[in-house]
Write a structure and sequence with these properties.
- There is one protein chain.
- With 167 residues, the protein is mostly helical.
- Among the domains are: 3-54, no CATH class; 114-163.
- Helix content is 74%, strand content 0%.
- It has helices at residues 3-15, 20-32, 40-54, 68-98, 114-137, 140-166.
- It starts with a helix and ends with a helix.
């Protein structure tokens, strides 16, 4: 083979774009022919590949043994899941049928008169609003904390400047 073609094949080989036939041509070139000195490292590389292809493994692989225990564990787990689904379905149907009770007790939150329902809703919202305002009053101190923190930042800048001057 001519040298320019071998060099192009080598470039394509290292880019991963050669075909099996081109790789075989490279292997035969580097294992049989006299190789120019600038391509000598590739001769060792392809000789190594050829040598490794000839090796066969002497290690025997044993298939994993199937255990009857795992089979029975799977069956038991399936039964437990089926029983669990059955019991959950039974408990679910009992609770929905026995607990459905319609009440008109004002303590339960059901009102017949829309005006009364609106008045009670406003009372509850005012109560929630008052609690939120009480929590907001404590946030005033947070502003004072931020101001003190800014003062510490200036103090830190002063300390850094002092340290740089001392060095």
């Amino acid at each position: 083979m001519e040298l320019a073609k071998i060099e192009k094949l080598l470039e394509a080989y290292f880019e991963g774009s050669t075909t099996v036939a081109e790789e075989a041509a490279l292997r035969t070139y580097f294992t049989n022919a006299d190789v120019p000195p600038h391509l000598a490292p590739y001769k060792n590389l392809f000789a190594y590949y050829e040598q490794q292809q000839q090796l066969t493994s002497t290690h025997t692989v044993q298939p994993p043994r199937s255990s009857q225990r795992y089979l029975w564990m799977g069956v038991a787990a399936s039964i437990v899941v089926i029983v669990g689904i059955f019991l959950a379905a039974m408990v679910g149907t009992e609770s929905t049928t026995s607990r459905v009770v319609i009440t008109e007790d004002p303590a339960m939150g059901t009102y017949q008169d829309p005006e009364e329902a609106l008045r009670k809703t406003k009372e509850v919202l005012n109560l929630v609003s008052s609690y939120m305002h009480q929590g907001k009053q404590d946030l005033v101190y947070l502003h004072e904390f931020e101001q003190a923190k800014k003062g510490l930042v200036y103090l830190n800048e002063f300390e850094n400047t002092k340290n740089s001057l001392i060095k």
